[in-house]
Specification:
3-stranded mixed sheet, 2 domains, mainly alpha, 7 helices
């Protein structure tokens, strides 16, 4: 999602500039993601990002861009009560405020309208696919992590396959790629290498 937010921000600027405007005329832009889970797993409901200087504390790059991730699953008191009600509604709870009631009504109207039905179903399918990709990604990374721990203990491919209950061909493929990242076995890099091979 962080990379996707970067892509969306770039597309907004590109579309604006393709209309014949100059880069000095670029307006402020905000990318807002609504997540049904805590993307960064730090307990916040809202994570806001603006470009900052690494060397100088509190020095921000005022390029007019901001990316915000609104996340369910947080436990900190970092948003207003109205925002918390909206987040609850976002994950399927009943509308409990004027705002969420209005949103709920508009969503139902959009679904009922024949004109929007196809777009809604297409969007829902896309969201389901994205969700399933996220589950698959986390599952793959967990498997890689398990295999790497066993490789560090010098276990054979046959034993690893038996312990993780996966086909030996699949485990061997991961082990072959992981060998190039020994002895640290960086899970993220191994996953990226596997993804590149699939592509």
């Amino acid at each position: 999602m962080p990379l996707r937010s970067r892509y969306y921000q770039g597309m907004i600027d590109l579309e604006y500039l393709e209309a014949g405007r100059k880069y000095k005329e670029l307006p402020d832009s905000y990318i807002i993601f609504l997540c049904t889970f805590d993307l960064f797993k730090l307990g916040y409901h809202k994570y806001s990002f603006v470009p900052c200087c690494r060397e100088v504390e509190d020095l921000k790059l005022t390029d007019g861009t901001e990316r915000v991730f609104i996340c369910a699953g947080g436990d900190k008191k970092d948003v207003s009560d109205d925002m918390k009600v909206f987040i609850d509604y976002m994950v399927g709870k009943a509308a409990r405020s004027n705002l969420t009631s209005r949103i709920d009504m508009k969503v139902k109207e959009a679904i009922e309208k024949r004109f929007w039905r196809k777009e809604y179903m297409t969007f829902k399918e896309q969201m389901d696919q994205e969700f399933n990709r996220g589950i698959e990604l986390e599952t793959d990374k967990h498997l890689i992590e398990q295999i790497c721990k066993k490789l560090k203990k010098d276990k054979s491919i046959n034993i690893i396959a038996e312990e993780v209950e996966e086909p030996i061909e699949k485990v061997k493929g991961i082990c072959d790629i992981a060998a190039g990242f020994a002895p640290d076995y960086d899970v993220e890099k191994i996953y990226e290498a596997m993804s590149s091979n699939k592509a």
